[in-house]
Specification:
The protein has 298 residues and is an alpha/beta fold. The protein folds into 2 domains: 3-63, no CATH class; 82-282, Rossmann fold. Helix content is 39%, strand content 12%. The chain is built from 11 helices and 8 strands. The strands form 2 sheets. The protein has a 6-stranded parallel beta sheet with strand order 5-4-3-6-7-8, with helices on both faces. Helix 8 links the parallel strand 6 and strand 7 (222-226). Helix 4 packs parallel to helix 6 and helix 8 (211-219) packs across helix 10. The termini are close together.
Length: 298
């Protein structure tokens, strides 16, 4: 018999060995952090001493979520130019076609919440040269009927974008169905080619796993993500993406600009491609299925 401990947050980690079966679902972010960074055994014992009292010498297997490549844009045939969503003049904030074709984009996808930091990213962009060099795309939340947290973030975003609406260089749209987002990201990468790669900046205070980050990586975006949390388990700073301090707008701005000033565009494109390959090699549905198969066969 095999003992399985299932830890689930944004990431699903399966830790296996021993006898019997245990399924456990805590919300302990600290534990997930250490699982992602390779200190699994030591930290599991620290947080769950009773469960592992008799199996301290055993090793555990972690299996994360997967990203589906083959159907990453299942509507792509009927939406070859999904990026036109960003030109929708029915949105309070939208892009001009000229800006979209002349500049790469910074994109951020996720629920609008103070801990997700979209308002901080808006300030980062609007208060720096990034607003001249990149378009900003923020996707998420219920813009028409926001809840308390969404309202706080939306008000701050609009305050930071005040006076820039006429530039038609920023998009603020509500939550979109995942398939549409995947289409949009792929459409941007495939149709809007620039010397400097498009960027996905995750402005969250921390991310336990970051499925939206992986999906953007799989499309070919250059990734900037928080140092806190589990993202450092698959992003190696300067190799397949960048880990940054997301405490404030100034810290994000400083570290992103250092990267842009320190690396040539060709090298940044190579890093983005390395990120895409990382997802394909380690997080594709096929690779995750093989890990599950091996788990149950051994």
């Amino acid at each position: 018999m095999r003992r399985i401990l299932l830890l689930s947050s944004s990431m699903r980690s399966i830790l296996s060995q021993g006898r019997g079966s245990i399924f456990y679902e805590p919300g302990g972010s600290n534990l997930l952090d250490h699982i992602q960074t390779g200190n699994s055994n030591e930290e599991i014992y620290k947080y769950f001493p009773d469960i592992f009292y008799n199996i301290k010498k055993q090793k555990f297997l972690k299996i994360p979520e997967g990203v589906e490549f083959k159907k990453s844009c299942h509507k792509f045939e009927v939406m070859p130019k999904a990026y036109y969503i960003l030109l929708n003049k029915g949105l309070e904030y939208h892009l001009s076609e000229e800006n979209l074709k002349e500049k790469p984009v910074i994109i951020n996808v996720g629920r609008f919440d103070p801990l997700k930091g979209q308002h901080i990213l808006a300030k980062t962009w609007s208060s720096s040269r990034l607003s001249d060099e990149y378009d900003l795309v923020l996707i998420g939340g219920n813009i028409k009927s926001p809840d308390k947290n969404e309202k706080i973030v939306l008000e701050e975003i609009k305050k930071n974008l005040k006076g820039l609406r006429e530039k038609e260089a920023a998009v603020l749209t509500g939550a979109l169905e995942n398939g549409i987002i995947r289409c949009l990201e792929n459409s941007i990468i495939m149709n809007l080619v620039h010397e400097t790669p498009h960027m996905y900046i995750c402005s969250s205070y921390k991310e336990e796993f970051g499925i939206s980050i992986l999906e953007a990586m799989s499309a070919g975006f250059l990734i900037f993500a928080p140092r806190r949390g589990g993202v450092k388990g698959y992003i190696k700073n300067g190799e397949n993406g960048f880990l940054i301090n997301t405490n404030t707008a100034d810290s994000i701005k400083e570290e992103v600009l250092i990267v842009l000033d320190s690396f040539k565009p060709k090298r940044l494109r190579e890093i983005a491609e390395k990120g895409r390959q990382t997802v394909f090699d380690n997080f594709s549905i096929e690779s995750i299925a093989k890990k599950y198969k091996k788990l149950y066969e051994t």
